Automatic annotation (TrEMBL):
It holds the Pfam family MarR. GO terms for biological process: response to stress. Coiled coil: none annotated. InterPro entries: HTH_MarR-typ, MarR/SlyA-like, WH-like_DNA-bd_sf, WH_DNA-bd_sf. Residues 1-139 form the HTH marR-type domain. PROSITE patterns: HTH_MARR_2. One of its GO terms (molecular function) is DNA-binding transcription factor activity. PANTHER family: HTH-TYPE TRANSCRIPTIONAL REPRESSOR YETL (PTHR33164:SF43), TRANSCRIPTIONAL REGULATOR, MARR FAMILY (PTHR33164). SMART domains: HTH_MARR. It comes from the Bacteria. The lineage of its organism: Bacteria, Bacillati, Bacillota, Clostridia, Eubacteriales. This is Transcriptional repressor MprA.
Length: 156
């Protein structure tokens, strides 16, 4: 496989994976009155705890300008709180409210109930192989990114 084929395959797979994961998750989010992005944000906060707005945006592949209204809407709905950093007011911390924690738990439960019947016991090994392959791809892309960043810094 040459570089162009690799790039094309990665772009196409990334888009396809995102579309299919979004489709699986959309119905669960909608059943809970949320968009997929809102649900993903709640689940991210449930998993990691309080986050800085910038870190949350980066994790969810959003710009800060898109993450801000998303968080504002969820705050107005009572799912989370936002507060300025104590030492740096430019930093905004986002935290789940009790209602947000409850919603995240409901999302996890609903997703598991919807998806679990689709899995067979023999799928376990295949799923582990898929996750391992994705980790290996992630590691490769990180190494490539590191090399490119190093080259870019040397050129400046």
């Amino acid at each position: 496989m040459d570089v162009l084929q690799f790039k094309t395959a990665i772009w196409n797979l990334q888009r396809s994976i995102a579309e299919n994961a979004n489709a699986l998750f959309s119905s669960v989010a909608a059943q809970n009155g949320l968009t997929p992005q809102q649900a993903a944000l709640l689940l991210e906060l449930a998993q990691k705890g309080p986050c800085r707005m910038g870190d949350l945006a980066r994790t969810l592949c959003l710009t800060k300008t898109n993450a801000t209204p998303l968080c504002k809407h969820l705050e107005e709905a009572g799912y989370l709180t936002r507060r300025r950093g104590e030492t740096d007011e430019r930093v905004v911390w986002v935290t789940l409210s009790p209602q947000g924690k409850k919603a995240a738990t409901q999302l996890e439960t609903a997703f598991e109930q919807q998806i679990q019947p689709l899995f067979q016991p023999e799928d376990t090994q295949e799923l582990e192989l898929v996750v391992d392959g994705m980790r290996r791809l992630d590691s490769l892309l990180k190494r490539m990114r590191s090399v490119l960043e190093h080259i870019t810094q040397e050129g400046e």
